[in-house]
Amino acid sequence: MEQQWQDFSDKVNSRLNASLKEAIFSNPRSKTQTVSKRKVRPVLLKGELCFQVSSYEGKQVKHENLNADEATKKALIWMQEEFKQLEIHNEDSTLICLTNKKGTLTMKVKKSAETSQRIDEDKFAHNRRKKYLLPDTVAIPFLVDLGVQTKEGRIINSAYDKFKQINRFLEFIEDILPALEGEERIRILDFGCGKSYLTFAIYHYLHEICGKDVEITGLDLKADVIANCNKLAIKYGYGNLKFEVGDIKDYEAYQDVDLVVTLHACDTATDYALYKALCWNAKAILSVPCCHHEVNRQVKATELAPMLEYGIVKDRFAALATDSLRCMILKKYGYETQLLEFIDMTHTPKNLLIRAVKKQGLVSAGKQEKLQAQEEEFSRFLGIHTTLQTLLEHGKE
Question: Are the CB atoms for 83 and 29 separated by under 8 Å?
């Protein structure tokens, strides 16, 4: 191999890493050439950094995924046989490669304007960038389609809060992962999944990054939303991710579920989700409740009248009382429960997450009696009786 092409291969290979934004092969050598352009961008597949090649043939775009060495070998062939120009855009600089009719190759590196002005934060230990479970430098297809990332992998400024929220939720998933180990396949149900950005994130993290065998079902009432989610799951190749139209209270799983997830299931929908989780003896529950109207309507403790006469205070009190009661009930059924802050209060006041993990062994009869008495006293004092309590009285023994 001529020295110029050896240098070319070395430079290309050194730039195929997580800092790659995009590489573009253009200016075809022949007017009759089928492929008019090729684009390369980094993607994460099962925790491994790969490079997705998009080849443009007329109105069609074909994709293939390569590792760094494979992409380097292909790049050499493409530049020698198909294209006259290549631009590789990395975070700090751009490599521009041009060839002429005689086959002479010229390469030059152009520093990005951002790099020349940026202070190197890594020099300061106290100012290092946060490491997210989903990287903020590599394009992830579902985040691109959701408008969180650009095609080059950059987080869109207006979507940074959502990006942080997704990663925060995945931290909770990471925390409860030991409770799900030991299963050949982890079965997860997401009640009230909506547009499903968290559902896609859970699947991507557990299957693509952690390499787990997972099966996830998303459930929601909106048929058009569910249809779109199923299309996207097929598009990303997420074979064990499916979405169904249905109501939480009527849903029956074909098999036991290991993890039940609910994000902002409104009012008593959270109670139905928790009830189903208890019936399935789920190993873990992650629930972010929303709209606690039921307790708000019922609560009438005389001693709390000075506080409950203010609507905003009553609303917040009802939310705290409802979720505290839910945790109390989950404890009675053998779950270690916590109420945690999901995201900062500046983004939404509905930011509490119930994290419940099934403990090994049964709860002793004495502890159950104590928790039952505590639940009854708490409910009687506030003058409330919730849907979850009613469901358990008439259903699960």
Answer: yes
